[in-house]
Structures
1.
Amino acid sequence: MAELHNDRFLRALQGQAVDRTPVWMMRQAGRYLPEYRASRARAGSFLDLCKNPELACEVTLQPLARYELDAAILFSDILTIPDAMGLGLYFEEGEGPRFRHPVRTEADILALPQLRAEVDLDYVMQAVTTIRSALAGRVPLIGFSGSPWTLACYMVQGGSSRDFRQIKTLLYRSPELMHALLERLAVAVTDYLNAQIRAGAQAVQIFDTWGGVLAEGAYQAFSLAYMQRIVAGLLREHEGRRVPVILFTKGGGGWLEALSASGADAIGLDWTVHLGDARRRVAGRCALQGNMDPAVLYAEPATIRAEVARLLEQYGAGPGHVFNLGHGIEQHVDPDAPKVFIDAVHELSAGYHG
Amino acid sequence: MAELHNDRFLRALQGQAVDRTPVWMMRQAGRYLPEYRASRARAGSFLDLCKNPELACEVTLQPLARYELDAAILFSDILTIPDAMGLGLYFEEGEGPRFRHPVRTEADILALPQLRAEVDLDYVMQAVTTIRSALAGRVPLIGFSGSPWTLACYMVQGGSSRDFRQIKTLLYRSPELMHALLERLAVAVTDYLNAQIRAGAQAVQIFDTWGGVLAEGAYQAFSLAYMQRIVAGLLREHEGRRVPVILFTKGGGGWLEALSASGADAIGLDWTVHLGDARRRVAGRCALQGNMDPAVLYAEPATIRAEVARLLEQYGAGPGHVFNLGHGIEQHVDPDAPKVFIDAVHELSAGYHG
């Protein structure tokens, strides 16, 4: 493998000194880029794009051609695991992901096959290898998965939801069944992320998109506990380097103390959290990633720069911060705005380091 | 006016001793009740029901006939103000509220009429008077409004939203216009709530349903500041009694310290917050209301009772707690479940008082 030329991102995740605050954007390869829309049109559907390693590599690299990003992230979907389990993932325009065969009963849960990611999600591993090779050491490659709770939400609801009625009914009426499902998913996610690491992912992030809909107490038992189990089962060193793991619970700002004791290297923050408060609360136990409101990218350049400056000041001097948005970049953003954002992070953060 | 027979709710909001923890449910007059669905069918549309004082009174009282609730809440909609401003509120089945004439430009904002609630929202005041008289002192009546930020979200987006793109673009590109809109709304809400108080509302709640989508910093400037201005302008005494005000920001658990310094008597909590932590954080500056996950009402009676017991224990001994759900009761709840919930609050809370 090629030598890594820019290791700011990996260093910051381990709390090591850097010259600039590293920055990347969740969903950085996406619909706001005209070149992404062109690749997707060539692929056919979104899933066809995910399942074609050459095209997945192409779109992964597109934002790096435009912006001075400090990391690349595998282009894929968070629902590849349940898809490989045979639930029949599909996408309806404007409706988000759907499953043809949602999981509702004990029999459904017991019938879920145990995956071998290297075989059953071979196309993901091929994409990781292809991207890693194409990056040629320019920046590190991030692998990822949905959290067990988040996968379970989609699998039980059969798609997105506003009230999460089916899964919460399962949780409150049949907690032992809920745990049985989450245990299977934790095993599958651990295996999946380890396969990505062996294929070349240099850091991994667990997206707990729906952890924030859980009640205090239920979050710890039904989401965090399973992410913690995954963290404990991950390969933490590969190719002679630490492979950092990032946990991102959207709406999880109230649980930072518990998240920072999970064994993860870094915690992702959404935009409702004060970065300085968050830094005090995690008290050096892990690094932080975040947390600009993605909607700031709709603002004028001067406002974008001012928001970057404000967040850098909140975090303060020293390492342990990876700049990011508080959630994925939105499709209506002008592709010129991320350049203003990313350049501002590098330029304005210099004074906080070294 | 009839003497008030049950003042637990008003006493708890002021941190005064009570014999049992008072309890009510947000959206307690609603679609989960067959008698509500019958009244609504007679009224025609949801808005027809809101605008008919006799029917609004009828549905307000329905949950009190089934459950030992410690408060009634005016049956109305949070969007009555923009409707009275001429935006053309309507409801599409399964889509939530919509406006025929969303507010998008400076001209739209400047053209918004200044309301006189007693005249322009006369039907609401008639409903308050009718309900208050029908209650005959059984329990206090709560009036309410949406917060300026929450009203603005619907007015600018034209309805519900997932990404709040239009209003956040307005906020980040034209903050002075955003403030102009919020100022007008704060004046209107203050006038509206004072009219409800004069008509007979004995406490008022401001629903900041969408405050939680704002970034740290933006929340304080664009939502909390305007709720604080309203609190400062409210009649705080009427009929020789304190009229308590409750602020409820869904997703506002990170901002409890600021909320508790707003001058409000109580802060509503969603289910992501630990009640004991919240009590420590507000440090006696105000009372707390909440915060059971509404989905617990899908559980078996034993689980509902266990959740009530857990939350009572989290809050601990002494006054200053009004039990509630962390959000509105959902339409698919079995009408037997709230009885289990409400009876459990009264029965299990006795040991924490007196």
2.
Amino acid sequence: MTILAEILAVGDELIHGALLDTNSKWLAGELEAAGAVVQRFTVTSDDPAAMREAFAGACARADVVVATGGLGPTLDDRTRDVVADLLGGPLVFDEASWAQVRHWLGSRGRPVPESNRRQALMPPGARPFANPVGTAPGFGVRVDRAQLYVLPGVPREMQVMAKDHVLPAVRSMPGITPLAQVWLRVLGPSEAALGERIEPFMVPGRNPAVGITASGGLLTIRIVGTAPTAAAAAEACEATARELRPLLGAWLFAEGTVELPELVVAAFKARGLTLAVAESCTGGAIANRIVDVPGASAVFRGGVVAYANEAKEALLGVPRACIEAHGAVSEQVAAAMAEGARTGFRADVALATTGIAGPDGGTPEKPVGTVCFAVADATGTKAWTMRIPDLGRAFVRDRAVFESWRVLLQGRGSG
Amino acid sequence: MTILAEILAVGDELIHGALLDTNSKWLAGELEAAGAVVQRFTVTSDDPAAMREAFAGACARADVVVATGGLGPTLDDRTRDVVADLLGGPLVFDEASWAQVRHWLGSRGRPVPESNRRQALMPPGARPFANPVGTAPGFGVRVDRAQLYVLPGVPREMQVMAKDHVLPAVRSMPGITPLAQVWLRVLGPSEAALGERIEPFMVPGRNPAVGITASGGLLTIRIVGTAPTAAAAAEACEATARELRPLLGAWLFAEGTVELPELVVAAFKARGLTLAVAESCTGGAIANRIVDVPGASAVFRGGVVAYANEAKEALLGVPRACIEAHGAVSEQVAAAMAEGARTGFRADVALATTGIAGPDGGTPEKPVGTVCFAVADATGTKAWTMRIPDLGRAFVRDRAVFESWRVLLQGRGSG
């Protein structure tokens, strides 16, 4: 049996460009790991009619619906009202939830406005969920076909409450189907060429399903399987991966559902090496994404964002003559930056980037998209140049960051 | 008259946690600026039945539907088939689109697999849109109530084609209603306290509508108005803002729909000052977000991510004795880091952060969440300490980054 899940996100701010909905993606990953099959996210404005239609539709189609947002204390927070309306009953004041809201605010020395009382109103029959990290209580209630869970929109509050209340309930549903994933990361072929190579695996209805995703110059083959047990699902995915690997050959350059910076940190940890970076055109993006990896401090010594030439000289010891002779975007300067970072941060390996991300700064010899890289380690320094298509500043930067992950994982040299 | 719009995003990779849907937010902002009212996004898996239901629902409810994704060359790219199925007719091979796909691949020296022919198949009656930056052609076609536009999922391809084909068509629709926004950024009160203060403005159905969004410690009052002309919509929003400002007083600390790093760059540009940063616990996030701002190079000299104590010494000239006497997380070290960055980068203003983001590293005197800041400028150096609630590593970092924007905009001192 399949437990179908849908995810709703409520809020004008998600529609009108103020915030990106990151909750739904997180929830989908957790719900699928728990064994549900997620087929749809819906993001709806605060408009009561639009909300009502979105909630009613999801609760008619799915077994589990998780909604986030619209539980705040102000008048534009309408999720409670819409759910009560769907259930055809009035909101009920929950004394325990109100005590908790007051306790949360009071223990932080904040005033307790009367308008926060709205947060303790519950639709008829709803089971309140305590919020250990904020004021908004959540709740669970049966609506039509679905078990509906309503959580706050603030990500950290939503995540704690999903782990406490939603995921355990989903995992214990009768007939839940465990799901597993294996990802193969591919570099080299076009999406179409890869699709032809693995076409027999991509038929609709196959279990495990095999799909291709293109992102930032990298292709990912996603193998997603379901089975009666988590172990059987994992084994089915691995069996498909065993068939695919020989077809991929040298195209296959990494495996796993983790992000590339996590793979880099894991690889350096495994080799007992430390890393430093000197970034010009990538502007700190490499350092920032490495630091986001839990445990990065064991391998990452630090980084310099050296936009100005003076910064390349003063902080990385790049000789002014080198910049004047070859230009700031040159393999020579990239090499000097990498060596300066390796020395300054006392790291085993240092990577440097210097390039022209655009829109300005291009010349006939060095057009926008020209990026020089260097890696310095105990064996010496190697520098190389990439010509990235000028498809916008963000594209050039992303592609340069990706090349950095590639070289840190695969070794030096141009890909 | 109101033109209702909905946005669809297609792809298993969006549901199963591989990619975050950023297209819908971008499209919503552009469609609303063009005068449409967006009430819903839907993200659907590649499952043909789920896709069909999502497309049929959106095209029954809205006047304009923009869908992204599922136009690639592989068998799991099914948007063309689903739309043809909805229209009850077979796919039609479009010779001009095929010529374009071949030209795009050929001019880049790539092979042209036969499977790319799938991308030249069009639903009956569809008008093909050329893709100037990739292989996947898009199309426009009438489905039920809606004018349906289908674009590739790759953001840069989608954006170019939306600007070329979708937005001009929407702007010329009869009865289109221009929309304007004014955002007031607020720091200080709780969301409930702010809601009480401006409650009379938050009634449903008001035009301009007034709403509150909480994000990263900052509250944003969003004023969104529609009117027969863009100028009248802007004036209506500004009239509401004029009424709100006196109610906010010192809580109001910035205005505008731009992000805080953009406000920082604009403020430094206006004052003719340059900026450098030295980051420990914020890990390059401040530098990275500043560099993302177009034109940042005019004010931003660079940054150092100094995780290790040796890096603080070698690159920023923080005396070892200072670290030993006060600890790496101390106002003294923050001050020395800021002064070192100001000197090294030859910047007018330098900001430094050093703190304990967790989960490890806390002590009774300096618990997780303790962050020291310093700003060095021509008038001297000032350092201060914040105790950020320990709600997770990401929260502490985000809150520290936000404090940095605040101090760079409002001046030194604790908030």
